[in-house]
Amino acid sequence: MRVLIVEDHEELAQTVAVGLRREGMAVDVVLDGVAALDRTSVNHYDVVVLDRDLPGLHGDEVCRALAGSGHPARVLMLTAAGTIDDRVTGLGIGADDYLPKPFAFAELVARIRALTRRSGQALPTVLVHSDLRLDPATRIATRDGRRLPLSPKEFAVLELLMTAGGAVVSAEQLLERCWDEFADPFTQTVKVTVSRLRRKLGDPPLIETVPQAGYRL
């Protein structure tokens, strides 16, 4: 899952980003509305966590632009003003959810995950493939009842492969969805991560390499 945080309070933005990365998400951070539109024009995001009161280009305008462009990201709007009128306005301009400041980090995580479940086709709460089970909410993956000691990136790659339903996922797609903007597109990190994931999954092998295409379960 890839998330863009748009928040002009840099310390808050970085603190939230660190927490979300620990939850296995790929996170990019920008501090103003213009930069937000720049990032969303070139990157795929599942969720945009958008502060409403931004300098330069107001969060409302960013939200309207995303909704008007048909960008697939869900928008979770943040604001220090938590009145009913504010929430109605925010939802009316295209936001998918609304969270007043200050907020509990656990609630932010829960709302982000809830928004991704609304995107695209409905997925089961627990993903299952053969004897492999993955629960995105608890961040637990097991095979044949054995809990797998996965790193956040390994968990993210496995989750994306499982949600693909047997379709091939390219290395470029894995890099785009599971790593942030600082990932080197020419790196071997995807190949290395898949290799480590294979070892942890054990036998019989579950991840197939499709030459010149990518990976699939």
TrEMBL record:
One of its GO terms (molecular function) is phosphorelay response regulator activity. The keyword Lipoprotein does not apply. One of its GO terms (biological process) is regulation of DNA-templated transcription. Residues 124-217 form the OmpR/PhoB-type domain. Keywords: DNA-binding, Phosphoprotein. SMART domains: REC (SM00448), Trans_reg_C (SM00862). It holds the Pfam family Trans_reg_C. Residues 124-217 bind DNA. Residues 2-116 form the Response regulatory domain. One of its GO terms (cellular component) is cytosol. PROSITE patterns: OMPR_PHOB, RESPONSE_REGULATORY. The modification 4-aspartylphosphate is found at residue 51. This is Transcriptional regulatory protein CutR. It comes from Planobispora siamensis. The gene is cutR_1.
